TrEMBL record:
Gene3D superfamilies: Sodium/glucose cotransporter. The keyword Lyase does not apply. The chain crosses the membrane at residues 6-26, 38-55, 75-94, 125-143, 163-183, 190-210, 230-250, 276-297, 309-335, 368-388, 400-418, 425-444, 450-470. This is Sodium/proline symporter. It is a multi-pass membrane protein. Pfam families: SSF. Catalyzes the sodium-dependent uptake of extracellular L-proline.
Amino acid sequence: MNQPFGTYLTLGIYFIGMLVIGWYAFRKSTGDLEGYMLGGRGVGPFVTALSAGAADMSGWMLMGLPGSVFVKGISGMWIVVGLSLGAYLNYVYVAPRLRIYTKIAQDAITIPDFFENRFMDRSRLLKLISAAVILIFFTFYTSSGMVSGGRFFESAFGMDYRFGLFLVTSIVIAYTLFGGYLAVSLTDSVQGLIMFAALVAIPSVAIYHLGGFKASFDIVNQLDPAHFNLFQGVQTAGILSLLAWGLGYFGQPHILVRFMSITSARELKTARRIGISWMVIGLLGASLIGLAGYAYVNVNLLELSDPETIFILFANILFNPYITGILLAALLAAVMSTISSQLLVTASALTEDFYRTFLRRGASNRELVLIGRLSVLLIAVIALIMSYTPNDTILNLVGYAWAGFGSSFGPAVLLSLFWKRMTSWGAIAGIVSGAVGVIVWVALGLSDMLYEMIPAFCASLLAIVVVSLLTSAPQQQVLDEFDQARQELKERA
């Protein structure tokens, strides 16, 4: 479809704004690897919370979730419960411990780096396996974001899918490659605000046009009463699968890195309040877009070939062109914020956990930052090739990668922060069991029966405990650092 000039103008300003932020970050904080990958551990709670939320939610929040609720009704909202609870527990139990412990563990700047330093693994095997998992699953995850970008331009502007794919990817590469973590965090924060505004504005205006909440819900009820049945079309296994998405938070590197970069563990309480509020309101807004969309499309006899584009439909028909441009920018913000975060984390794995560890231990900071930028470009090109011909829904692509990280890293992160007896061999067994469990479960076609996160997470947890107990206890220095981290946590509480 052709959009008015005002819509193109607003989107153009948005793109320029993201590039300007990238340039600003390039000027400020890319002198060394910690500055490029973690912003020098000087990021405040507001930026931490909003960038974590924006990086987390991706295009599925504005397309996948509304589309799911449009089709299934409120039974598709079990995932909202699981994600909200998982994010809250992640902020409370993982965030402060990880911020303190990564500093004690020789100032680790990546999750594989933390694992190696936490267990003093001299074999390098733990770091190698952890980094490999990041490369595999983040390539799929990044690809899902690029697919969202391509479909956005296809649906909103009637443009070729591949044009949108290349445009979005190019802009994200530009500000991520040059500005590093600071650029990603600042752009994510701005994008988080835009997303929040859109997720409040669109359902509010749509419901107003339908005559208010009661009238909207009455219409949905008349069309299909099952849309208000929490258990419609879902069995117990289905509900558990949706709730299990919350387990994934404990192992997502692009979210955990936000906790590592914040200025102080004390500021995480403020970040939690901002982040959880943003998330709950946003998820409810996205769900309401799906419900209101179901009513609006049927009442007005509109055609909607893809339910995942209901957000775009509302943005086009309910607002003037300039506001439409802002709302469409919100969808792009969701897509771009996640892609940039994933690119940077994957690049950090290639740079810190492969290049410096195995190829150039004496590399200078200037060289490492250069390799980091080249890694961003390499991963982006690979993900772009994978996205060229999409063959799955956005939610399914995200779900696969989310389960991969949640199952392989989640139990390892949790137990490394809470269980003193855990060993490096236990960590290796858990990471491998979780990753392989997800891949095998999906390959066997069992995902429709039960989300792969559940069996793989349990397998990883069990493997860590069993192997840790069967192998030699950690050396004394490892135990001392664990006690030091626990003591610092108590002092800063």
